[in-house]
Amino acid sequence: MSGDQSKIQNPKSKILHARVLVPGFGRGQALVLPEPLSLWGGLEPQTGEIIDQRHPRAGEVVTGRVLVLPAGRGSSSASSILLEAVRVGTAPAAIITAEPDAILALGAVVARELYGQAPPVVTLAPADYALLVEGQMVTVTAGGEVQVEDV
Amino acid sequence: MLYLALMTLELSPRDEAMLAGERGRAAQMAMRILATMAEVYGAERLLDIESVHVDGCLYHGESGVEFAERLVEGKAKVVVPTTLNVGALDLLHPEYFRGSEQVRALAGRMMRAYEAMGCRPTWTCAPYQALHRPAFGTQIAWAESNAIVFANSVLGARTNRYGDFIDICAAITGRAPAVGLHLAGPRRGQLLFRLVGVPARLLGEDALYPVLGYFLGAHSGTKIPVIEGLRPETTEDQLKALGAAAASSGAVALFHAVGVTPEALTLEAALQGRPPEATIDVTLDELRAMRDRLSTAADGPIDVVALGSPHFSPVEFARLMPLLRQHRPHPAVEFIVCTNRLVYAGLQKRGWLAELEAAGAQIVVDTCVVVTPIVRAGRGVLMTNSGKFAHYTPGNIGLQVVYGSLEECVRSAALGRVWRNESLWEG
């Protein structure tokens, strides 16, 4: 099968180094958003679904995925939505951005305080960020390594 | 690796003491969150702040209630004057709330928790017009995008864009990360917007300012815009409307208006003596196009008129009253004005409240119609003179929106369909 062949052709996983805003371990399939997303009005924390109808990935569920997005956008209430998603159990496994996003980081910092858990929030340099592809298995380590396994 | 954050944050002995728990568990948690975020921002130190405006009191889910109540349990008290932004309930008119009883109970618990920490129950997104006006140059930590941009731009106070959680942490600790707009250099204007061929008559019209603000926000992103061409007599309510719209379409936290705002006595001062990164000419045609972008529905029947985002001021009510006497809202149109309790008390005193209610107007306090379910119409078209309401109405409450001037809104409410003053936007 072609899937097996690609595995054989790409036996090595890539390891990228991120700036850690909120440390932690997270592993999941990459959900790569082509545009920034405001979680307030953009993510329904009860279901983990992207509900911003103007967003190209509307309808996708972020739960358990490694959410890859250029940055958050808009309202500072995004921190509240991320915290609520952690409480409900619909949060992504990790969040990777191309620019440091303090509002997302804050949601994770408070989640760690209240619930003792939070998705790690890390930032990759633009060249590394561009290497991430939809559907890849991605692991973020507490030290800020981003391990990417090609599918 | 260069890209790794350098841990350069240095805490003062008092910060360290708080972090060690010497001021109690809540202050410890607040300082822990603040110090972590200071590292995220790349701050080297924290600085003292003189006031906080808290936005975290608006209900978004049970976790927010748990956060506030955790602080209350830990004996949290604010150490600087702290005002509160809108909550999800109009506490003077609890019957206006159309959400579930469960959410009503949680939203109420949340509002009480913030009061219990010593915050003033101001419940307004416009604390700056009467309740608390920070002086020029004051270090503050404010949340709520329109209040942030007003405090920075119109008052010349200094705040970054704070939001839920970190706002109350700043109030409990009295500290904020010393970065960004707290410092002089980063307040430099970056983009120059020149009004070109905009008629002097239009510069005197309130309806221009949400449109101009929406244009600035859409073209500025996170950069600091400088506007050249506004008149020195531009009113505070006009600047309020401009800032609120700019902070809706973009992440504008500070704008300069040459000859109008306090850090822009001259263009050179606004740009801190450097050339702008880009110059953008704003023409009448572009303003008309931006005005059209504020509406999502064509002119036709309307179901709701909503005014007061940011919260309506006494001067705005003084403009509304004569219009409303001439053009009484159609009974089928919900006519809603959002304001704060101080202004509301003034309406009562002047006899305007009774008059407004007799005309069928619903005056909402403590909250507003795009953050909580108050509007009765489940669908249809809402007309507004607010750029911020126009921006958030379709996404937040599912109605389509039409933007118009105050007069257009009032006369449309009387007719039940959009009325236009065709000369308003003429060249």
What are its keywords?
heterodimer; A: 151 residues; alpha/beta; eight-stranded mixed β-sheet; two-stranded antiparallel sheet; globular; disordered N terminus; B: 427 residues; Aconitase, domain 3; 3 domains; four-stranded parallel β-sheet; 12% strand
Give the number of helices of chain A. 4
Largest inter-chain contact set? A-B, 36 and 34 residues
Which structural class should the secondary elements of chain A be placed in? alpha/beta
Portion in helices of chain B: 25-40%
Order of helices and strands of chain A: HEEEEEEHEHEHEE
Quaternary organization: heterodimer
- Main β-sheet, spatial strand arrangement of chain A: 1-10-9-3-6-7-8-2
- Rounded to the nearest angstrom, the distance between the terminal CA atoms of chain B is 57 Å
Tally the beta strands of chain A. Answer: 10
The arrangement of helices and strands of chain B along the chain is HHEEHEHEHHEEHHEHEHEHEHEHHEEHEH
Describe this entry's structure for a reader.
- The complex is a heterodimer of chains A (151) and B (427).
- With 151 residues, chain A is α/β, with parallel strands linked by helices.
- Chain A has helices at 2-9, 78-88, 102-115, 126-129; strands spanning 14-17, 19-22, 26-32, 43-44, 49-50, 66-69, 94-97, 121-123, 137-140, 145-149.
- In chain A, the strands form two sheets. Chain A has an eight-stranded mixed beta sheet with strand order 1-10-9-3-6-7-8-2, covered by helices on one side. In chain A, strands 4-5 form a two-stranded antiparallel sheet.
- In chain A, β6 (66-69), α2 and β7 (94-97) form a beta-alpha-beta unit.
- In chain A, α2 packs parallel to α3 (102-115).
- By secondary structure, chain B is α/β, with parallel strands linked by helices.
- Chain B folds into three domains: 2-182, Aconitase, domain 3; 188-293; 304-415, Aconitase, domain 3 (2-Layer Sandwich).
- Chain B is built from 16 helices and 14 strands.
- Chain B has helices spanning 13-19, 25-41, 62-73, 101-116, 145-155, 166-173, 200-203, 208-220, 236-249, 267-270, 284-294, 314-326, 341-350, 352-358, 387-397, 406-415; strands at residues 46-48, 52-54, 82-84, 141-142, 175-177, 191-195, 225-228, 256-257, 278-282, 304-307, 334-339, 361-365, 381-384, 400-403.
- In chain B, the strands form four sheets. Chain B has a five-stranded parallel beta sheet with strand order 12-11-10-13-14, sandwiched between helices. In chain B, strands 8-7-6-9 form a four-stranded parallel beta sheet. A three-stranded parallel beta sheet of chain B has the order 3-2-4.
- In chain B, β13, α15 (387-397) and β14 (400-403) form a beta-alpha-beta unit.
- In chain B, α2 crosses α3 and α2 packs across α6 (166-173).
- Chain B is globular.
- Mean pLDDT of chain B is 96; it is low at 1-5.
- The A-B interface holds A 17-22, 40-41, 45, 52, 74-81, 83-84, 86-88, 100, 102-103, 105-107, 109-111, 113-114, 125, 144 and B 1, 3-5, 29, 32-33, 36-37, 40-41, 55-56, 58, 60-64, 66-67, 70, 143, 145, 161-166, 251, 392, 395-396.
